[in-house]
Amino acid sequence: MTRLRAGAGTAVFLVLAPGVVAGLVPWVLTGWRSAGPPLWLEAVGWLLVGAGIATVFEAFARFVVEGIGTPAPAAPTEKLVVGGLYRYVRNPMYLAVAAVIVGQAAVLGRPVLVVYAVAFGVAVWAFVHWYEEPTLERRFGTAYAEYQSTVPGWWPRRRPGAEECGTFRE
Question: For the chain: N or C, fewer Cβ within 10 A?
């Protein structure tokens, strides 16, 4: 796969996955109508939304540049992606999408989005645990096993972890 093709596929997947999960569904649930939360909560919400969006874009770009593929299971990367934010946590994309949803809940003052964020978290954990991690173990073998043992899945490290192991990159 070329990087150009990976970039095009990643852009489509960005719209179809995070775009729907963190855009369309919250809109359907709320109509973007605010319940008038306190200003401080709105400010926290906007910080979460901004950080989440920036993280999603960085993670998606990393799949194209470093992995030469897409985040979509149908067009996976050729190489294991362990750089950038993936040095701190194995699942920055999912955490970022959750941050966007929780941020929207705060900006709008809509608890239904907190409930949705929890449901999203459960679904993503199940997907990662039963599909994604076994697939990466089969595809990348010991490189993924070493990465998995060094970099936490859900709670980011303070310092990057990928430098500790030279075998992450194939």
Answer: C
HSE toward the beta carbon, residue 30, CA cutoff 13 A: 25
**Could you give the domains of the chain?**
3-163 (1.20.120.1630)
- pLDDT, one tens digit per residue, over 2-31 is 999 999 999 999 999 999 999 999 999 999
DSSP 143-156: HHHHHHHHS-SSS-
**44-81, pLDDT tens digit by residue?**
999 999 999 999 999 999 999 999 999 999 999 999 99
Spatial separation of the C-alpha atoms in residues 168 and 170, rounded to whole Å: 6
Question: What is the DSSP track for 55-120?
Answer: HHHHHHHHHHHTTSS-SSTTS--SS---SGGGGT-S-HHHHHHHHHHHHHHHHHT-HHHHHHHHHH
